[in-house]
């Protein structure tokens, strides 16, 4: 079954404690992306990757890092989380960015206290 | 910032009424995609339009794009409670092919 898998689904952490949200897809997609969703603001892109070792900033990259060492995985790293990073995060992948449908993960609800 | 604007932000309807959400861009979009996100769920792809003036229909859903490919609309006829959710449009940012999402329209259907 074609899918994008994110882990964890829920996470509560404290300010400053590094965390990683994993994302994996089984469709051999080259394009992967991270979004955060906040009430009234829709889906805002954090980072995206066009292929292995190729990443670029989206609209709201501050406070986040990503890596793309393998085609299937695209982890999101928060080196020093802050309360304003409390949000719902989605990973997505597609064969062709913007030209073919994007598949989204189930989402990770992060709370930073 | 986001270059794709959606209105309205919320829409309450009685079951059986029609619903329309609008998507507008300041620049011509090479294509427009629509997604639906159920409450507590993740966005799921609905449809994509590529050609100017294109109209696509799926059961009670009608999606169209303007001749200049700067605006699009999604229309649901005779809403049902299963239509509840947030509808997003997405299109490539000006000068690139990276998709940007509108803020979405949340549809609330009252039985």
Give an overview of the whole structure:
Chain A is mainly β. Chain A has strands at residues 4-7, 10-13, 19-25, 31-38, 42-51, 54-57, 65-66, 76-78, 87-94, 103-104, 108-112. In chain A, the strands form two sheets. In chain A, strands 2, 4, 5, 6, 9, 10 and 11 form a seven-stranded mixed sheet that branches. In chain A, strands 1-3-8-7 form a four-stranded antiparallel sheet, with no helix packed on it. Chain A is globular and about 35 Å long. Chain A starts with a strand and ends with a strand. Chain B is 0% helix and 54% strand. Chain B contains no helices and eleven strands. In chain B, strands 2, 4, 5, 9, 10 and 11 form a six-stranded mixed sheet that branches. A five-stranded antiparallel sheet of chain B has the order 1-3-8-7-6, with no helix packed on it. Chain B is globular and about 45 Å long. Chain B starts with a strand and ends with a strand. Chain A binds chain B through residues 35, 40-45, 48, 58-59, 90, 92, 96-107, and chain B through 1-2, 6, 9, 30-31, 33, 35, 41-45, 48, 88, 90-92, 97-104.
Strand-helix topology:
The complex is a heterodimer of chains A (113) and B (111).
Chain A lengths: L3 E4 L2 E4 L5 E7 L5 E8 L3 E10 L2 E4 L7 E2 L9 E3 L8 E8 L8 E2 L3 E5 L1
Parallel strand pairs in A: 2-11
Antiparallel strand pairs in A: 1-3, 3-8, 4-5, 4-9, 5-6, 7-8, 9-10, 9-11
Chain B lengths: L3 E4 L2 E5 L4 E7 L6 E6 L6 E6 L5 E4 L2 E5 L5 E6 L8 E8 L6 E3 L3 E6 L1
Parallel strand pairs in B: 2-11
Antiparallel strand pairs in B: 1-3, 3-8, 4-5, 4-9, 6-7, 7-8, 9-10, 9-11
